[in-house]
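It is worth pausing here to work through a concrete case rather than discussing structure prediction in the abstract. The textbook approach is simple: state the sequence, then state the predicted structure, then interpret. We follow exactly that order.
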Amino acid sequence: MIDPNTNECRIDYTEELNDLFSALCSNSSGISWSRYCDAEKGYVSNVLFEYRLDDAGLAKMGPAAAFYLFYVGGVLWFASIPALQSGHPSQAFVAGFVLGLLAFGTYEFTNFATLRGWVIQMVAVDVVWGGVLTGTSAWVGVSVVKAFS
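Step two, the predicted structure:
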């Protein structure tokens, strides 16, 4: 939540994580993502990650691009193609969600175990985000292909 007096973003992680998990469990879309805001940049990762990691180093785009190309291949192989074959786009969401939890969980829990500044709140938010993002992406892709075929 942005403090109107200081224009600083203040986060109560317990409340936010409860909102995230409640929304996932109840399938509601009433999450107020504005609580995860940054007054200047406007996204979660800056508020949650940047100040903890400070100048840990710039991202290496080559390895990141290689990973995400393989990741898209994994989403197609494990989620989208089986869902297209079965004719059920919801299968793509479920398989993509699980794949996202596994992939983002591997990254997050490894960092949590090895990096001093990594905290459990970062792990929880990013793992849930990975599941939702991957599941939704797989579902949208399958739904679009199914609509045009």
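Step three, interpretation. Confidence is low (pLDDT under 50) at residues 9-14, 21-43. The CA atoms of residues 2 and 9 lie 4 Å apart.
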